[in-house]
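Record pair follows.
FIRST:
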Amino acid sequence: MLCAVGIAAGLMVEARDRRISGWLVTAPLVRYEMLALTGLALGVLFVRGHHLKSVLVGVLVAALLLAYSAFLIGIGLDYLPSSILAKARVLESTGTATLRNILEALSVRQGLALVSLALVLTAYALFGARTEKRLIAVCGAGALAAHIALGKTIGYHRYELYAVALGMLVALYLYGGPIRRRPEAGWLSAVGVAGLVSVAGLALGFPYLVVLGQIPTASNNIYSQQYQMHRVATAYVRDRVAVNDLGYVAFENEHYVLDLWGLSSREARLARRAAERASGGISGGAWMGDLVRERGIPLVMVYEAWFQVVPGGSCGLGQARRTAARRAGVDPGS
């Protein structure tokens, strides 16, 4: 979110005094989501006359990212981290993946907020008066559209947050002139505009306020689930285990942990994708059993809801209670 706001603010500074911000170089090195926004921002700078600098920054960013991909390939991995490939379905799927992302965005509140912000920015790009502001509007709308088509809008409000912040900032910048001039028309008009802006901001930010209030409960859920799984693995099993939610189980664990969801295992990710394509949905069973047996893993700890069946050849030992998580209204997998 800080990187996205930094790039947008940098474009605003350039529109005012033609000075270029250093955010454009660092942002994509923090998160891959920044690539679309960075590319569009460099396009704005090129159109604004910064030809050499925009090209040099683009080449530098591309060289650094390609060098990292070369490093990954050199150690036997894919061109992108497995965690990215496991979550960004458009990178490993064809045809309907982008359409599914768009439909998913249209089915949730924050996705609709992104679409609304993109339309607001597009309106200024088409009908705005100042060329430099219209370019920033194109940049913002394009970045939001890229996230809607390629990114995620479901996941405890952590994936789309940067895009919402970007859209709100750019919208306020584009339409800030009329808002600032409203007080001259009288205090009643000024109060009305301020109220409208406040309501819009609250509507966009309310889900994040709800999540903020749920942090203690969500943290307790981590303690009740992932931390207890970590204790089982490190204090009792003291051997290799397989899980579908890596994080805490692998933390300070000297033994191998197989990630069945594929965030840290290329083999598991490819096997799961193949099973999904074959069955038309998330599928477990044979492929999980094969991976577990190949690595000599004695214990598997998974969320059954994430898989249709458990690893083949396994024997159920127990089930963690999830009553408290459900009662709090927080996703047990969070």
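SECOND:
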Amino acid sequence: TNPNVFSKNTAIVTFTTAILKEGISYSETYSEKPLLSIYPNPAADLINISFLSGSEEALLRIYDINGKLCFQKVISGDGESVSAQVDLNGFPKGIYSVIATDSKKQEAHNFAKQ
């Protein structure tokens, strides 16, 4: 298919982007600290998970590569962040997704179990 060919059924999308303020670089504007961190990655026995939630608690879920829920727990924190250490014994080797959710946001990150 040719990307320059349009038909009467081609949707036209119009949008406007924000103007970058003078003196501020793109990287300064969009280089926020990640909300979810997992270490070590790859992991063997334990992983440490930290979520900058801004809430007192968050729901932590771990899924395997097939989408099967392997771990779920509500974790508490200090109103700024929540953290947990998860024992990976019993988890087969592979790639997993961690999803942390609080009342306002959700963040996902992958890790490898060795």
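COMMENT: Helices lie at 26-30.
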